[in-house]
Amino acid sequence: MPHLYYVHDPMCSWCWAFRPAFADLLRRLPLGMSHSRLLGGLAPDSDQPMPDALRERLQATWRHIQATIPDTRFNFDFWTRNTPRRSTYPACRAVIAARSLDSAKDETMTLAIQQAYYLQARNPSEETTLVELAGEIGLDREQFKQTLINPATQHQLAAEIEHASRMGARSFPSLVLQDGHSRWPVAVNYQSADPMLESIRLILD
Asked: Residue 70: what pLDDT?
């Protein structure tokens, strides 16, 4: 059966903007099509403060998204309340850790990270924030923390990054449709699920 891969990073602002259209797409996928999520790993681990030029560029991206994609909001207090780091691997591992403790928590943890980052001005590059979020979505905090730092969690992230790369998904968000041994990229549309559904139908036909 055909399968749709969604490659994302919970701290990717474009993934946050894509959330409503992607949710609509999943609701309307052709009958029998399965789907799964892969962590793409936008930015490796770093304990260095984000350079000023990058901070300004990311804030400009937020403003651009907010102006062009309806109902996408950002809390710019993040930039004054925190010491931002260009480090999204911790948040990616948090999604994997949550998923390994409860398979239903993959999307739940992703949303919790996005809301913390983009709406609540909290920093998901920090382990303390991720442990707090795990508790807020109903996971045992200590168990989550141990899973988060377990080398197996990093190994899983590396495997998902490699899988996404082999499929040619090197930007986020990305959609890849697999049918048998063949794979096709599906162009992401932030405004509507309709063009993506049309692409999927054309590929399958």
From this structure: 87
